[in-house]
User: Which sequence fits this backbone?
């Protein structure tokens, strides 16, 4: 039975009907359709009114909703209770928060992740966010950034002859745009891996586009709740996926890792290339993808950015290098650019000793595939533990804080950031880092105070507003939180 993602009701005073199938009749008080499980049109969830079904994924429905006062669009996802157990939900919520604290340009922002039950009053108080006591008929409700473009639209854009001509006139090409997007996705995944986060289901529905040149990965923390279908599932996860299908979702949750994300990324590339590139453009790239999809995880690339780097180098070398020169600029070097000039991520430190002087620049030669195939996987986190030393400068303390945060040693990270702040109380970004750390420890009041201190120093940083909103959400102050998100949006679009 096909569901309906096209229908967007116009009037506000129509008889209630199901957003999934307008023909399904609903009683006036019904919020969820008893036939297909979709929400009724115009359902109000707190201060948002649901307008349209965006799609149905493995674990639930995604909707477009609007903030009732400002009209700001958001995406709301509802996953039914049967998709995960409460402990896993808690873990998912933690991961969602950590993913949001990454503040990566290509990781979808999640505003809140909580529970909702249709029996609760659905309008007015904003009290739809429940606690995780998981009563029956509870849904995991995720409120996140709405990103209108799909991967299908992206492909259609690059296939369009007029667009190809326009890109050509600008000195670019479909290949260059595709690679730019793959690079964004690659850096997002790498940033997540560096924080110990694995995605777990890089399926097309989880790749969104705010413009043809700007891609986002959705559902960090949520995607892992359910295994993806073939061809995205790597062989090493079959058993865990089977266990998940038999009710042990934890098995899949625990089994995903950076190498399995790399596999799925390579599968996505394999699907995209023939649709966007000429055969002579993508054939030289297939060995790279084959390595990314190797049956043995240890034979894949040590990290995803090496895979992207090889794609990039090979594409630049092929006859069709129009628009590729941009990727050779120094700030596209993943390691060197991640913390500052690429603007992609503000707080992810280099992931290993010596990585700041990295040799992973895109202008480097192709990684020799056979030579590395036999090598062990490079761990995403520093192999050597951080030994207590005597850092001399505030910058050292800050770096130490970053590293400890990456290692999830939040208590120690707190100490390090406090030391950095003692010297540099005027640096807003350290207060934000401190706030993120308190947040990771679920010390929400202190997180809020740290974010507010950062805002006092720099009131115009949209990310600080978003983080403050997340802390307020966690403290149950949902209306204040939404005001923060609104302000963040205003600042971003200013
Ligand atoms: N934040 C968002 N903004 C805009 N559209 C979205 C957003 N999130 C999801 N969608 C749309 O809704 C559809 C369903 O999303 P959902 O997350 O439920 O499943 P999926 O991503 O397609 O698959 P999966 O469950 O395997 O992750 C997506 O395919 C996408 O088109």
Assistant:
């Amino acid at each position: 039975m096909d569901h309906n993602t096209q229908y967007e009701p116009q009037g506000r005073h129509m008889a209630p009907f199901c957003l999934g199938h307008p023909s399904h009749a609903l009683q006036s008080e019904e919020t969820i359709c008893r036939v297909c499980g979709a929400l009724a049109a115009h359902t109000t969830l707190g201060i948002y009114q649901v307008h349209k079904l965006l799609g149905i994924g493995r674990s639930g429905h995604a909707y477009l909703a609007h903030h009732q006062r400002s009209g700001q669009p958001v995406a709301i996802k509802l996953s039914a209770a049967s998709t995960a157990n409460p402990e896993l939900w808690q873990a998912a919520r933690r991961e969602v928060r950590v993913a949001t604290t990454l503040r990566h340009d290509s990781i979808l922002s999640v505003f809140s992740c909580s529970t909702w039950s249709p029996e609760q009053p659905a309008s007015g108080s904003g009290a739809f966010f429940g606690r995780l006591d998981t009563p029956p008929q509870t849904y995991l409700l995720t409120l996140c950034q709405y990103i209108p473009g799909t991967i299908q639209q992206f492909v259609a854009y690059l296939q369009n002859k007029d667009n190809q001509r326009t890109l050509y006139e600008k000195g670019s090409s479909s290949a260059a745009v595709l690679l730019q997007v793959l690079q964004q996705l690659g850096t997002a995944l790498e940033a997540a891996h560096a924080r110990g986060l694995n995605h777990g289901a890089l399926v097309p529905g989880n790749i969104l586009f705010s413009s043809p040149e700007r891609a986002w990965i959705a559902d960090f923390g949520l995607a892992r709740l359910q295994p993806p279908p073939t061809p995205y599932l790597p062989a090493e996860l079959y058993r865990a996926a089977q266990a998940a299908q038999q009710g042990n979702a934890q098995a899949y949750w625990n089994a995903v890792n950076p190498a399995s994300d790399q596999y799925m990324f390579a599968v996505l590339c394999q699907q995209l290339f023939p649709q966007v590139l000429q055969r002579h453009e993508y054939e030289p790239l297939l060995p790279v993808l084959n390595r990314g999809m190797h049956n043995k995880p240890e034979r894949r690339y040590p990290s995803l950015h090496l895979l992207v780097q090889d794609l990039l180098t090979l594409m630049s070398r092929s006859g069709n290098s129009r628009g590729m020169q941009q990727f050779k600029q120094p700030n596209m070097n993943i390691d060197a650019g991640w913390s500052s000039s690429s603007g992609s991520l503000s707080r992810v430190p280099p992931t290993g000793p010596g990585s700041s002087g990295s040799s992973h620049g895109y202008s480097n030669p192709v990684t020799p595939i056979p030579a590395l195939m036999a090598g062990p996987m490079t761990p995403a986190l520093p192999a050597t533990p951080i030994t207590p030393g005597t850092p001399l400068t505030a910058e050292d303390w800050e770096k130490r804080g970053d590293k400890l945060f990456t290692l999830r040693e939040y208590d120690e990270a707190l100490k390090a950031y406090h030391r950095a702040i003692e010297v540099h109380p005027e640096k807003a970004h350290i207060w934000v880092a401190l706030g993120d750390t308190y947040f990771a420890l679920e010390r929400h009041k202190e997180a809020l105070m740290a974010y507010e201190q950062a805002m006092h120093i720099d009131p115009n940083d949209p990310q600080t507003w978003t983080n403050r909103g997340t802390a307020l959400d966690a403290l149950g102050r949902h209306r204040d939180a939404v005001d923060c998100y609104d302000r963040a949006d205003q600042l971003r679009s200013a």
